[in-house]
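Many introductory courses stop at the sequence. We go one step further.
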Amino acid sequence: MELREYDLNMGPQHPSTHGVLRLKLAVDNEVVLGVEPVLGYLHRGMEKLWESLTYTQVVPLTDRLDYIASLSNNLGYCLAVEKLAGIEVPRRARYIRVVLAELQRLASHLAWAGFMANDIGAMSVLLYAFQAREDVLDIFEEYCGARLTIHGIRIGGAVRDLDAPLVSRIRAVLEKVPRRLEDVRALLDENRIWKERTVGVGRISATDAIDYGLTGPSLRASGVAWDMRKDLPYSSYDDFDFDVPLGANGDVYDRYLVRLEEICQSIRVVRQALDGLPEGEFTAKVPRVLKIAPGEVFHTIEAPKGVLGFTVRSNGSDRPERVKMKSPSFINLQALDHMCRGNLFSDVVGILGSLDIVLGEIDK
């Protein structure tokens, strides 16, 4: 049968591209021959903007990168600046940061589970996942007054301390999330339609995943045990006992299972951090006008979507000379073509969703 190639556009105005992303698809009937992501529709220019701001003024703008995981962006940037400036963060502040970062990972994965299921047609899962996520967002709102673009971490420590009532509230939420997670898994794990749309779809081997630079759950779903919190610990992560969930097949279904298991591991970490919360200050003494001697650093963390890194270069003033961000969504997107080839056109939505991208940090 003769090959007939058609070019189709998916996006940039499309509900399942999770932002203004355009995909140029080459198809033969229903079979995908190739995918070319087209970026740049947001025109953000964030990295250039940061050069005109002080080190402290940059922090709130990191909220707007991966806006589903704002605290992770705060943490990555602040750790880079602290490394460059030689600021020693108090141990209690490091534990508070872990609590906030893992609650943010939990909320991010819950949002992903809801969006992913909704993309494939399971509307009820979106409601279940968002109900659990709302409880976590209530904690963030009580902590710092925000629910989405959360400014909870500052250079030198955290915005505020964790008092006893807030700790009790966090513990109560940690009891509720697993029960809601069981509802989600009861709906999806052995659901025939869900498995037909995810098992064996968008497969990528461990070797190819490494070659494409995949990070985070998308990498670990292919069986590669790489997690910055374990392999290059930061912010006292080496004080906590947790497992790194791995997949075996590197398909959409494994990426789903890995993220749901990571929610359970985040709950584990938060409980340990609350149980062992040290006494002391929740922030270091940082000058109101922070000037850093000339130098350059690169620092990475394990954000919900993968390895998030910041390069910060100083020239001795109170403003960074250069800030460059390594975005996991941007890097993971380059494997989309490999994952989609040979699959059906209807599978593109599920494969793209399984990467958990956010255009806010792609068009940075």
